[in-house]
Design goal:
Length: 367
């Protein structure tokens, strides 16, 4: 992208969403100053707060604003206030509608144990073990978007959720995963439950067929139960994990534990409309108002945005170096603290990251 002026739709959402998006947009503005681009932020209601303000989790105004932007930054949605609402009136329904409306069929979740956090991963990966893989999750199909129904009364009450996949839906996410693997170590592990499910049978057949046209690619298949076990036993074997919507949802939280905390993981969703970045941690109602939330996942969303959308890999690199530098100093939010760490608030952590960016910027300008 040669353009130097972008619009970012910012959807702070609920719970800790507003505080982590504030941290991330601050970092983004620092980068704009250093790398000579301009970014206009357009804040829009979304999720539970939009239900309160506008009666709908995804108001038309918000959708239009997103469609007009170059990218979307989302904080988090949901909270106990809306937990007893029917499925179609919960904040989550807005998120699913947004994914559909923006055509965001591909969701990338990088699972990376950053070096300063090595001692913290619950699995204590061996010193030589590199945890660095990408989950590529299909995001607009599967059981998420089929019929959800509860019928009958009393002992006759029954429920169903319908899972569907078509060949073109599987093909496009498979191509996306193959393209990612070409930029990495050329390994794709496709996850399914083809020993039980029809959708998975079609999934495996389709992925296998496309894989036959990719001679340089090392493609294999795992049943999801085995994949869940292998992520814990030997995470270093993975490069790109290709999953359906539901399996990717589950395995990405498991992967996040390997990265030290769910607060460390960003995500990137792409498709026909503007891409959307969001941390995967959710709205964490128990942390609201305490300034304890880990801003790393959302700050890493900015790094993804700069790398994948704005073609500014040096800016992305600078953010990650600043973040690793602060973590290596032992400055940590509570979720990633270990013996000897200095525990700081989320806003103090962000301040430290921004101070480092400021310093790198000066060094680069002086060079
Ligand atoms: C995620 C979340 C969402 C999902 C929820 C909030 C609907 O868990 O992005 O992983 O299930 O996709
Ligand atoms: Mg999830």
């Amino acid at each position: 992208m040669s353009q130097k002026h972008w619009t970012l739709a910012v959807l702070p959402g609920d719970g800790i969403g507003p505080e982590v998006t504030r941290a991330a947009t601050g970092v983004l503005q620092d980068c704009a100053g250093k790398f000579g681009f301009r970014i206009d932020l357009v804040e829009l209601p979304f999720g539970g707060n939009a239900i309160e303000k506008c009666g709908h989790p995804l108001p038309q105004e918000t959708l239009n604003g997103c469609l007009k932007s170059d990218a979307v930054l989302l904080g988090a949605i949901g909270g106990p206030k809306w937990d007893s609402q029917p499925l179609d009136r919960r904040p989550e329904a807005g998120l699913l509608a947004m994914r559909r409306a923006l055509g965001l069929y591909a969701n990338l979740r990088p699972i990376r144990l950053r070096e300063p956090l090595r001692g913290l991963s619950p699995l204590r990966p061996r010193a030589e073990c590199v945890v660095d893989f990408e989950i590529i999750r299909e995001l607009v199909g599967d059981i998420y978007f089929g019929e959800h129904k509860i019928e009958g009364h009393g002992a006759d009450e029954h429920a169903r959720d319908v899972a569907t996949y078509s060949v073109p839906e599987i093909e496009r996410i498979t191509r996306f995963a193959f393209a990612r693997a070409r930029r990495r170590k050329h390994r794709v592990t496709s996850v399914d439950k083809a020993n039980v499910l029809a959708t998975s049978t079609l999934w495996r057949r389709t992925v296998t067929r496309l894989g036959a046209d990719e001679p340089g690619l090392n493609l294999d298949h795992l049943y999801v139960d085995n994949a869940a076990m292998q992520i814990i036993l030997r995470p270093e074997q993975f490069d790109v994990l290709l999953t359906s919507n539901l399996f990717g949802d589950i395995l990405s939280d498991e992967g996040a534990a390997l990265a030290g905390s769910i607060g460390m993981v960003p995500s990137w969703s792409a498709g026909s409309g503007p891409p959307l970045v969001e941390p995967i941690h959710g709205s964490a109602p128990q942390l609201v108002g305490k300034d304890m939330a880990n801003p790393c996942g959302t700050i890493l969303c900015i790094s993804l945005l700069l790398r994948e959308r704005f073609d500014l890999p040096q800016a992305a690199e600078m953010i990650e170096q600043a973040l690793d530098g602060v973590l290596a100093e032992g400055i940590r939010t509570a979720d990633v603290a270990e013996a000897g760490s200095t525990v700081v608030s989320g806003s103090e952590f962000t301040k430290r990251v921004r101070a480092r960016i400021e310093k790198y910027g000066e060094a680069a300008q002086g060079a």
